[in-house]
Design brief:
Layout: H1 38-42, E1 51-57, H2 68-85, H3 91-106, E2 116-122, E3 125-131, E4 138-142, H4 148-155, E5 159-164, E6 171-176, E7 179-182, H5 209-234, E8 239-243, H6 245-255, E9 261-264, H7 272-303, E10 307-309, H8 311-319, E11 323-329, E12 336-339, E13 342-344, E14 360-362, H9 365-375, E15 379-383, E16 394-398
Region (Disordered): 13-32
Protein name: Chemotaxis protein
Pfam families: baeRF_family3
Length: 400
Amino acid sequence: MLDACQYVANPTIPDHAVHSPQASPPTAHPRHRGAMTVKDLATLTPSGYPAVSLLMPTHRTPPENQQDPIRLRNLVAEAKRRLETDAAVPKPVAAQVYQEIADAAEQLDLRQVGDGLALFASPGQVHVRLLDTPVHERVVVADTYEVRDVVADAARRHRYWALVLSEQPTRLWSGDGPDLVEVRSHGFPFTHEGPGGTVGLPRDYGQNPSAIRDERHRQFFRDIASGLADVDALDARPVFVLGVERYLAFFADEWGRPIAGTVPGNYDHAGPHEVYKLLAPQLAAYTNMRQVAALEALDVARGANRFAAGLAEVWSLAQQGRGAHLLVEEGYHSPAWVHGDHLHPPDQEPRHDATAGSATLIDDAVDDIVEAVARNGGEVTFVGDDSLSADGRIALIVRY
């Protein structure tokens, strides 16, 4: 049985979010969320009708997790029933999409999950995401995927690259919170095989072994920087680097871009858990810095009258595609009524009218806003609780 990383559509970097039955399974930590960005998820497009979304809560520990396989089987059966009874879906297409769902579900290891699972399928296309936030159990057959919960979950994650410098070898880790997956593409892991590495330094008369070693090191770290640049171009993230001071200096010279944090020392044999433990203080400092910068940007926007505050106003502007940067308190969730183009508090159900029709109650308007901002290319930053108390716990820097 495979874990949630069983298929990869683009195997250049670890990713279990996009799946293709033709690809090979990557070597990955079972709870890694994949390489798709928040915007990628917000704009996830099915290959055509039907687009099936299967969402369910999962459990990390017994006895609750013993019911997860039963729940998943029931949802897969419900998806099959929906497909077979949908007159708009040809029988061969219904059978194909069902088989894609069944195969993906069969290969999931439900012992290695978080608090939720999302499975999306359309003809020739399957996507699986493991979530850190619970979701309401449901199967939806529509023209688009139900990605709101997945987008909000991804926006709350902290993704980064962790580069461990060494001659034997240099490894790159794809980090997603505490979960790290080793990248095995674009040259990684890099091993120094030239003079000064696996090959001895020349000792001919008149040659300077030290100068040759330094030049070979520069070339080695130049190759590493090039490989990392290629990976980062696919999914831009902050870069954290671990290694001895000499290697850190060589890499910094060749990288030429900002480094989010460094951890000096020899970590040639460090595994993913140790790498995360070493990086945890750096990650916390970086997150705090980003939150401070976002709040400062909000103050500037406030002075320029380019901001909105409060759930209803922010929701409206986000739906219009005007959100440049959304700031939300980490613990903020709120149900609401959607009535036409307006949002109403959960205890104030609007009356039916001929223009807007009946109102719809959504379980979390904050997730709706996060999805809308991400879908339209905006940035999302979660800040500490009480950071936005004067703004109703949510604020938006607008584009115009």
